[in-house]
Write a structure and sequence with these properties.
The chain has about 240 residues and is of the alpha/beta class. It is built from seven helices and twelve strands. The strands form two sheets. Strands 6, 7, 8, 9, 10, 11 and 12 form a seven-stranded parallel β-sheet that branches. A five-stranded mixed β-sheet has the order 1-3-4-5-2. Strand 6, helix 2 and strand 7 form a beta-alpha-beta unit. Helix 2 packs across helix 3 and helix 2 runs parallel beside helix 7.
């Protein structure tokens, strides 16, 4: 069932079910009252990443809070996509874009990775999680991806689940076509690794190519920025061996 894009959608931490009532926090209350100017009886859609999507109506308003009454479930809760997206954090504006697009493209886990050429050694995890929620609200997504704490490149590989195929974007690949390498992948559990603006170091690339659970793919003949490469790689993976 497709999302209803005509109604405002909000992510809430509360449990959702028939006839439940709760107050929204200050920020969401302000948004409904003073930005959207919704009155009592107006309906919105709610989701929490666990209980599916529910319609709810504003039952009361005060100067500080909006109270909602849950009405009926509109969509069931789907499972979290089983695609892990590993990425070298970028500077703020482009990192926000990258997170939003990863959510839209079906990533279930977002894993920051600190490589030798990573620009941002300590990414703002709380901000990343907020971006993920906002993207889910806007795109009709009910499963909110997990944002993990940043991990160093070598530690990530050392603790990797060997049953999950790790696909990495290799700017030094000898071909421009990613399809043959992707079509040869047999595993159902997938992950994507995209490097920083400066690319992977020679040492990192050597480490990746030596691992049996890693597949290197090119992204064509043009040099792509890291955030563009992320979207391109997610698209080609989902279209070739993913859930498209």
């Amino acid at each position: 069932m497709r999302a209803n894009y005509k109604m405002q959608r909000l992510f809430v931490p509360d449990d959702l079910g028939s006839d439940l009532e709760f107050e929204l926090g200050q920020q969401q209350s302000h948004y409904l009252m003073h930005v959207l100017r919704l009155g009592e009886g107006a309906e919105v859609l709610l989701f929490n990443g666990r209980d599916g999507e529910w319609s709810a109506a504003i039952t009361a308003k005060s100067k500080k809070a909006v109270k909602l009454g849950v009405l009926a479930r509109q969509r069931p809760q789907p499972p979290l996509p089983d695609l892990v997206y590993c990425f070298a954090p970028l500077k703020q504006g482009r990192l926000d874009y990258l997170m939003q697009k990863a959510v839209e493209m079906g990533a279930g886990v977002l894993q920051p990775v600190i490589t030798q050429h990573t620009q941002v050694a300590k990414p703002p995890i709380d901000r990343l999680r907020a971006n993920v929620v906002e993207a889910a609200e806007q795109c009709g997504i009910l499963t909110v991806p997990e944002v993990r704490e940043a991990e160093k490149f070598d530690r990530l590989l050392a603790g990797w689940d060997k049953d999950r195929r790790l696909i990495f974007c290799d700017e030094d690949a000898s071909t421009n076509n990613p399809l043959p390498a992707l079509q040869a992948v047999q595993e159902k559990k997938l992950a994507l690794l995209v490097g920083p603006e400066g690319g992977f170091s020679d040492e990192e690339r050597k480490m990746l190519r030596a691992l049996p659970f890693v597949t290197a793919i090119p992204l064509g003949q043009r040099i792509l920025r890291a955030d563009t490469a992320a979207v391109a790689a997610l698209a080609v993976i989902q279209a070739t061996i993913g859930d498209w």
